[in-house]
Design a protein that fits this description.
The chain is mostly helical and about 220 residues long. It is built from nine helices and four strands; from the N terminus they run ααββααβαβαααα. The chain has one domain. The chain starts with a helix and ends with a helix.
Length: about 220
């Protein structure tokens, strides 16, 4: 009942309130991006949604306009050379993700869920299939995001998404939401140009239940 009805109601309420309350922040970020580098304000990209249906995700642009299109940041040879000065701050504070409130309001994403994979991240998509993690709406943040984020190898990230899939509830979503605030404040798990470099809280991954990982 929660996943089919109340979760969507909560998403609509939170995304609507977020867009209203954070509108001054949106304005400041928009002006800063426009004045600091050439290019559009928003970055748009194909991502994998519920049931692997593709949708266009919105982000504040943090990279230069000559950045290779549809290339995951961790696959770029020298990602720092493509990120703008303002972009580094936006990524560090996760402010670049705020336009996804629009995706949530449109019904393409949820506040809490697995982070949407790029359409060509076939390894991650395949791993998530093992845990039915592609069967739910991707999220602005999620269980994997607060337990490693960019530092996680693909297999561990998918396994953590599987944990979320198994434990979806209002209380687990609240836990993820609070954990996200703490992670953003501590700047945990942000690794430009790399993945699988987990150095924090490895016990979280080691303690994944055998039932969940082997599902």
């Amino acid at each position: 009942m929660y996943q089919k009805l109340f979760k969507r109601v909560i998403d609509i309420v939170l995304s609507s309130l977020g867009l209203i309350i954070l509108s001054p922040v949106f304005l400041i970020v928009i002006i800063t991006i426009k004045l600091s580098s050439k290019g559009p304000i928003l970055f748009k990209q194909k991502r994998v949604g519920k049931d692997k249906v593709l949708f266009i995700i919105y982000k504040f642009r943090t990279m230069k306009i000559d950045t290779p299109k549809d290339a995951p940041t961790h696959l770029l040879k020298n990602p720092d050379s493509y990120i703008t000065k303002v972009g580094k701050l936006l990524r560090k504070t996760s402010l670049d993700e705020l336009p996804q409130l629009i995706n949530i309001l449109k019904g393409e994403m949820s506040v809490i869920g697995p982070r949407p994979a790029l359409w060509n991240q076939y390894d991650l998509i395949t791993e998530r299939d093992k845990y039915q993690a592609n069967d739910i709406y991707p999220g602005l943040t999620g269980w994997a995001q607060i337990n490693g984020r960019d530092e996680l190898p693909i297999q561990k990230k998918a396994a953590l998404d599987g944990v979320y899939m198994k434990k979806i509830s209002v209380f687990f979503d609240i836990k993820c939401f609070i954990g996200t605030i703490i992670s953003v404040m501590k700047n945990d798990g942000v690794v430009e140009g790399g993945t699988g470099k987990l150095s924090k809280s490895p016990e979280i991954l080691n303690n994944l239940s055998e039932e969940t990982v082997s599902k």
